[in-house]
Design brief:
The chain is α+β, with helices and mostly antiparallel strands. It has one domain. It contains 2 helices and 7 strands; from the N terminus they run αβββββαββ. Strands 1, 2, 4, 5 and 7 form a 5-stranded mixed β-sheet that branches. Strands 3-6 form a two-stranded antiparallel sheet. β4 and β5 form a beta hairpin. The longest helix is centred in the first third of the chain and has 13 residues. The two termini are about 20 Å apart.
């Protein structure tokens, strides 16, 4: 029953916008909690095709925030670290995963802008 309630709450909270994706040391949602409700991307009119999974083999705790720019087709143009409390090694893994992500325009995004800027955040927790 607890799993059903958790699943329901996760789906419900997934609809609410959030800018963070929390991961435990294994790269999955933290045990003992649902973690933040939505995805790591904070960019109006865009979402990710799927949530990133980052292997955190050393069980680090911390976060990294990137400023990113994409083009109108969702291609990643630039990545810049704006805050980092994790090791450079884990940051490199995050950036590799970031470059694999697919950015998808929301159906309500009718902007004709040639580029879009936003932030993407990875938070690591170990329970």
């Amino acid at each position: 029953m607890k799993n059903i309630i958790r699943l329901f709450l996760f789906i419900l909270f997934s609809v609410i916008s959030s800018n963070v994706y929390a991961q435990d040391g294994t790269g999955s949602l933290p045990k003992g909690g649902l973690g933040p409700p939505s995805g790591p991307l904070s960019m109006d009119g865009w979402h990710l095709k799927s949530q990133p999974i980052v292997a955190n083999d050393k069980h680090e705790v911390g976060k990294i925030i990137y400023a990113i720019t994409i083009d109108s087709a969702g291609k990643l143009l630039s990545v810049k670290v704006i805050e980092q409390t994790i090791s450079d090694e884990l940051a490199k893994i995050c950036e590799i995963e970031l470059r694999k992500m697919f950015f998808i325009r929301n159906r309500y995004n009718t902007s004709t802008s040639p580029t879009f800027s936003g932030k993407i955040t990875f938070v690591f927790k170990v329970n």
